[in-house]
């Protein structure tokens, strides 16, 4: 327990010194929440449902930035600088390293979640229609799925260049084509078919259903897809973890 606490303390200091986590993980989602709230809550042509649906999408941006971008880049950086190689000769396991990184990145995602929620609730009088308990449970499941993808990327890439490439591809693809920034509902049907391939699309779909009080409508397939993605990613990460 003392080893894990020390590892968390060190990781926390290193991660929170970086400006990337502040810009992409916290500021960007909060600013986008303010913009969406201002436009959609006042534009009668947009419809109130668009405003209500946007909350479930915006809260995933912080998860995406920290889990799919921040997590693998940090692990790859440690590998590049030989930090993981030095850990290899200590009692610290890959599981402890990945868990510590996940917890620290999650802390910024939660700050982002609270910031976006405060913007929607305090500035635009948003109210969730479904159960908060179910909503937070689904949110935690989406976090696990996105962080498992980031863990897999960070565990198997050989160097920083590869980590930058694959995490950027995963991040920007899901940022633009999963419904996090551009609403899924306004896309042409053939584009929606492409978007349905992306795991985050299913996570946002689940959050939208719960936030609008439709918990019983079509949740099985998204849950199965995210569950398979999570299982495959975590097993692959632990099996193919590279120390150097």
From TrEMBL:
Cell compartments where the protein resides: Cell membrane; Membrane
Domain ABC transmembrane type-2: 20-244
The UniProt record lists the keyword Transport: yes
A molecular-function term among this protein's GO annotations: ABC-type transporter activity
Membrane topology: Multi-pass membrane protein
Alphabetical UniProt keywords: Cell membrane, Membrane, Transmembrane, Transmembrane helix, Transport
Protein origin, superkingdom: Bacteria
Membrane spanning residue stretches: 21-41, 53-76, 97-123, 129-153, 165-184, 221-241
GO cellular component: ATP-binding cassette (ABC) transporter complex
Major localisation: membrane
InterPro entries (alphabetical): ABC-2_transporter, ABC2_TM, ABC2_TM_bact-type, ABC_2_transport
Pfam families documented for this protein: ABC2_membrane (PF01061)
Similarity comment text for this entry: Belongs to the ABC-2 integral membrane protein family.
Protein name per its UniProtKB record: Transport permease protein
